[in-house]
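Q: I have 325 residues here and want to know how they pack in 3D. Can you give me a structure?
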Amino acid sequence: MKKYKKFVMSFLSLVPIIFIVYLSSIYFLYFDSRNDSFSVKTYSDYKNNYANSINDKKIVFISGSSNFLGIRASQIEDYFNIPSVNMGIHAGLQSGYIIYQAKKVLNKGDIAIVLFDYENLTSNGEPSIVKNQYILTYDRDFFNNLDFVSQLKVLSSISLYDLAFSAYDGFGEFYTQETRHNFLKHLNKNGDMLDRDEHFELKTKKSLLKLPNPITLETKGLTEMVEFRDWCIDNKITFYVSYPNMIYRDEYKSLKEYREYFSFIESYFKSHNIKTIGTPYNAMYPKEYFHDNQYHLISKGSEIRTEDFIKLSEDVLKEDIKNNK
């Protein structure tokens, strides 16, 4: 019995050491070599470079991937005669981090238009492996400025399998200029994704949008929008919210809970003095206009969506552009 207790005590004393060694290995060695981090980094650098090259006032579209394959910033630029950037990126980075990155390219007099995926608006701060993998791989400054508990949560979200795969791939050494080129060859200078002409029927057969419970819950995703509006006011940036392009489904009008949710979102923005462009239903389109999920439009869909957005925003944006000069 004494030997058994001694063994248990010895084992328990090793647990924190093993845990510390494991987290330290992640901190010093982990590199996301499997998932989306490299594409996100490649796209972000490209879009940031264009945004930062603009010395005049500009329109910046801020979103997850919905607007990456949504409103064409190039068409907006041509129509309104003002530089425009599509900063749409991966929604898995979460709204707070996407906003954090967007602030780096916004300047006095700019117009910021936010079109977050509904998963970003309904999020209440749930962990995101996409975000955690990315900041550990490419944004250590952001990670190092997190509080200690948040850092532990990020590190502990990386599995032993993730760490092993990272080591197997040489901690990112396999990435080449050719890989980068293959990501960027479908982007125009404004950061719009082009050449998406195929509709994948099976991939667009997704379940209906998951709603928060209760529907009127003030989520972290919503409060972050209010905080961003305040930041924009302080920095003399015009702030708008619009809605993500999404597959239209009859249930979104026929089911009471969806009607109530979309009404709540609109009233929430109105009650917080957030200017909006269009309605959730204005941004819904037939399934055949979508590429590989409920948010990603094919090129034809993007063109139609942009034309519709111009009609909805023409009067207010022209006035803002005039006033901001």
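Q: Anything worth noting?
A: The chain has one domain: 37-126+176-324. Residues 37-126+176-324 form a domain with the Rossmann fold fold (CATH 3.40.50.1110).
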